[in-house]
Amino acid sequence: MTYVLLLLIALGAAAAAxxxxxxxxxxxxxxxxxxxxxxxxxxxxxSDRDDRAYLRAGIDLGLGSDSQTKNExxxxxxxxxxxxxxxxxxxxxxxxxxxxxxxxxKGEILRTLRERAPELGVEEVYFTEFLIQx
Length: 134
Known about the structure:
The chain has 134 residues and is of the alpha+beta class. It has two domains: 1-31; 36-133, Tetrahydropterin Synthase, Chain A (2-Layer Sandwich), CATH 3.30.479. It has four helices and four strands. It has helices at 2-30, 77-89, 93-96, 99-116; strands spanning 36-38, 42-45, 54-63, 122-133. Strands 1, 2, 3 and 4 form a four-stranded antiparallel beta sheet that branches. The chain starts with a helix and ends with a strand. Residues 26-31 have low confidence and may be disordered.
């Protein structure tokens, strides 16, 4: 009888801990400061001179809370993809293999998107996938 009572107490404590962890994880995910625009994966040739190098990149964009596209029609995905492809196609594999190179590439994408589509209110660029094949 004592073992059953201890087992029930342990299960109750585990359930309470699980619920607490789950509720905190949900709260932190919902408190992101930027709505996120998911883009389809990019696959392209890089600008390496001697070798053929290909990049497969998944990119999500963090949009500002005052983004005009939230209240109006869908964002201009063709313009967004064209802008990002233009930046990625100029990259060299050696330059973007390092963490610093990836950060610089994110900054260039962000700057170019802000120039070509300021109405989007892009605040962040997130790489969700990044693979270079030579």
